[in-house]
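User: Batch of two.

Assistant: Item 1 of 2:
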Amino acid sequence: MAIEVKSLAEARGRVLKLREQIEYHSEKYYVHDAPEITDAEYDTLVRALLDLETRFPELQTPDSPTQRVGGPVLEGFRKVTHEIPMLSLGNAYSAEDMREFHRRVKDMAGDDVTYVCELKIDGLAVSLRYENGVLIRGATRGDGEIGEDITQNMRTIRNVPLRLREPVSVEVRGEAYMPKSAFARLNAQREEAGLQLFANPRNAAAGSLRQLDPKIAASRRLSVFIYTLADAGGKELESHSDSLAYVEWLGLPVNKDIASFSNIEDVISYIDSWAEKRKELPYATDGMVVKVDNLSLQKQLGFTAKSPRWAIAYKFAAEQAETIVREIELTVGRTGAVTPTAVFDPVFLAGTTVTRASLHNEDYIRDKDIRVGDTVVVQKAGDIIPEVVRSLPDLRMGEEIPFEMPKDCPVCRQPLVRLPEEAAWRCVNSQCAALVRESIIHFASRDAMNIDGLGEQWVAQLLEAELISDVADLYRLQASQLVKLERMGEKSASNLVSSIEGSKANSLERLLFGLGIRLVGEKAAKLLASAFGSMDRLMNASQEELTAIREIGPKMAESLIAYFQMPTNVELIRRLAEYGVNMTYLQSQDARNLADSELFGKTVVLTGSLESMDRKQASDFIEQLGGKVTGSVSKSTNVVVAGEKAGSKLEKARAIVESGQNPDLQIFDEDEFLRLLQRHGIAGMSGN
């Protein structure tokens, strides 16, 4: 619901108040893990702020909570020179290594030394620069001297404050990481889509922060711990402990599991105590960082060419176990991918008993030479996902059985297919019982059609009772049929029918995702639904129209076209529509006839400054009309929007037109751009 305001001054006051509330609750939730309001209440505050900033664009600022997700897709990362180098740490692997480190420190600094022990987070080292309390730059470590500017992606991390509590100018260093739950979710999504899996949370975090599209980084649910105040902005501090306390007071996230000791044996005991406890943490750790606490002593100890003499990283040993593979099972997913899974004798790893591990595909098994009956080494990737590290051929007795991928589906016995450039074998029989079952479970899932109460158990029973054979059959079920199922009472039957009926009103993107079209995930479904507005328009879209949408690449476009060309799929969609399932995108502002807009499928470059809106708003409006915003002018550019003080990009565009390289390239000034937007009903314009 929109907030009623009578003047710009009143709107400014409401915006400032909302930002203060959102920042407070963000810190409570993301930094202190102590939320005081529900997610729904938090979302209401954000929506109210976004509404006011949309109506009064002059109130939007870079440090607003609404700016965490967004911004144009980058063409690349610019280089950043670290004024204070980000050096790596020396490593220790044993108690004796730690004692030797202490001896070196003691020889230079004397006996009176206090150490600070911090968990070493398994992620990506980053640097954050704040000027007058506002985040102005985020950068990767790179080679220690030169990193990459990832400011847009760092803004998407919820526990990174965009504004500090004090208007100070400081630089902090920390570790961006992916929580275990987010890592498991991401890899499950990638495996389902047939994409390469991330080996561990560290690789996942690094890959996420190097995405050119900030929206992808935002979807990965990263977090950060700050571990060093590199530039205190002139503030006098005596110890590393004091600096961390100051950093935390400013509103930055600091790990709570930090301890200080004046005896190296106590440090070693503390490290040992975390060897097992770390497995219970919601994030991955690969060691313990030990630092001299006194900042004057740190300065006295100095640096080697590669690392500080006052700190060292103790690396935990990876927990592994040997076991015997008894069987390699095959399962068929909803996309038809046939996945082999090793079933082995139980082993205890990272706090749980493990008996199974995915072997992913035929190539994985061949490369690691894994056979039924083999003794293998297993571990948990990132202390989360069980994996077979290697086989031990020296222990073979001659009775081990090499694995061969069957030529037929293990469920329906129809031939499997392996597409070029793919590692997975797939069942392409749409009537395969495994595909049907998994497709219905996915269709009913929370992120798809959200049919409450329709879980795996009920899907299996409905199929077994032959009450359904595909997702469309769900919409003709009656309570009188359901009560005949085992453990299905009248109330449960009535509730399920109501839930199925309610799902008919979902917006198009949920249906698209629910159909399980290969390579089309939740985000792509939203983009497609927003761009085309209706199922009918999407079904008739060309390859060019599809790939004109940002993030829809050639492979996804081919997958969509292939799906809609199959008569069985067309018939399924027809039946769903006949049963009353909504086939349109319900967000009316975006669900316009994009294919008829002047910008649909066009490449647009913004240059100069616009008086009526900022660049982000202009980019959003262009994308709403099906255009694609890029950062540089070339022969393939279709439109250039030139504001005040447009420079070299405008000159290059004129040169391209005059030289005949692209005589159709259009150049709009701000008034022409505003008139174009207004012709298509874009709301909130303040220009003439």
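Item 2 of 2:
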Amino acid sequence: MEKKIHPLVTKANQDLREGKISRRDFLRFSTLLGLTLAGAEMLAGCAPKEEAAIATEAVQATAAPVATEAPAGGIKRGGTLTCATRVERVDNPATFSLVSASHPWRHVVEYLTQTDPQGVTHPYLLESWKASVDLLTWTLVLRKGIKFSNGQELTADDVMFNFKQWLTESVQSSMFGAMSYLDLSGVEKTDDYTITLKLKTPSIFIPEHLAQYPAGIVPASFGGDLTKEPIGTGAFTMEEYVVGERCVLKARKDYWRNGADGKPLPYLDEIIMVQLGEDRAADLSAYQSGQVDTIIEPSVAIWEALKDDKDSTIVATPTAATRVLRMRADQEPWTKVEVSQALKHCHNREKILALALQGQGTLGNDSHVAQANPEFVDVAPYPFDTAKSKELLAAAGYPDGVTVELAVASDWPESMAYAQALKEDAAAGGFTINLKTMPASQYWEGWTDFNMGITWWSHRTLAPMILSVAYTANPDGTPVAWNESHWVDAEFNEILKQAEGTLDLEKRKELVGKLEVIQKERGTVCIPFFMSVWKIYKKTVHDVVADPQEYAIFYETWKDA
């Protein structure tokens, strides 16, 4: 039977022609609805009368990942890539709490989809997906013949197991809150390679959620600890993993994808990742001395030191990644909205951005929506006004000011700079802020428990994706696992649900703008900036992908001989 283009793609194409949305937004939107990137690009450029024919052909195509074209001199195979990064204690990939935890393991476990640096999501372990007209039913089709490193074929049973991990609340995966439009009763195995999802509410975000870092696919036999069972479909096997020190990845010879030279990926023989301590200055020293080829997630201080280095390639990318200062809405003194508003008035945002990031980012308005998100609406933040802060504290019952404790990871320099600047400026606004510093490893042990803390949040492509993970509640009103602020707002949740099911970008922007205002005025988070991030690597290294999500993926990376 001939497959038809989703009617919402046709509408989006008309919006593109009328100038209501950008070409990039059209490509992102149409690929989420099952069109291949090639088909979407043709549709974006074709005449209206050609639309049905091209779209029908394109939607039937399978979008295999495309390897980069070989350079004129030829790709060099072999060699070892050495990376400075964190080697974190992990067990279940469904519970990864940081992108950095996934860096070694995304070479071992893979994802059903992949979002590229332009924000367009493609099938990966999936061959294709299809959405119903009402967006309540999604059909996911796996590629056939993909083998785990233990020789077992990837099938729908494995995918069903992973959905069970994500959608079981007691597992405490961030996917549980992200995919609140779905529960286990709506996940069905159609055949050995097909899974059908029946959503509770319409959503377009399925493909992008399947690319998030906690969504790595493990076999159905997985026992709960990846370090003991490092089995995946990826291009490497984990040969050694010493928490806090190093890991060693070896290339598989039977990986399912080919490179530009027609032979199986990867090009490298080996990847070694080393953790050189809590002080990132050690990473810089190792890089400058040639001990490592690249620094994963480099700090702004490392960028500052290397930005003019002629032997390095440095690529900057604006993102929605940030440091969130969050207060527990269920604990004093933050139960009174005036206290949170007072603290927001103590933020000199330009100063904080300059001190924390050398100005390498964009200003925030205390909502978790960034200029890098297509739904961003320019809502002005509260002005820096310490007199207003004192007035608000007095109205909340603190005429003599208030003393609070701020938990900060000492090895996150951006967070420390932010905390120090706020501590100084907020004193004039009636806040005495005592800093409780600790290593990041200790911070993550209790990151949802602190009365007040600064937490690292990574980039998400679309604004509702991060808002549903970080600021929602279960039907009984209990905050979801990653709602560290414990802020629950019925109006916010209602509008967010509408935004998740709204496909028209302009209408979704209108809803997200309302969410920004609500979070700015009533939320218990302060977000003064969003970050730029960098890929930094030696010029002897080639084809390192720069993207706002900071994923470290070296399948197609190669080195000069």
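The longest helix spans residues 505-522.
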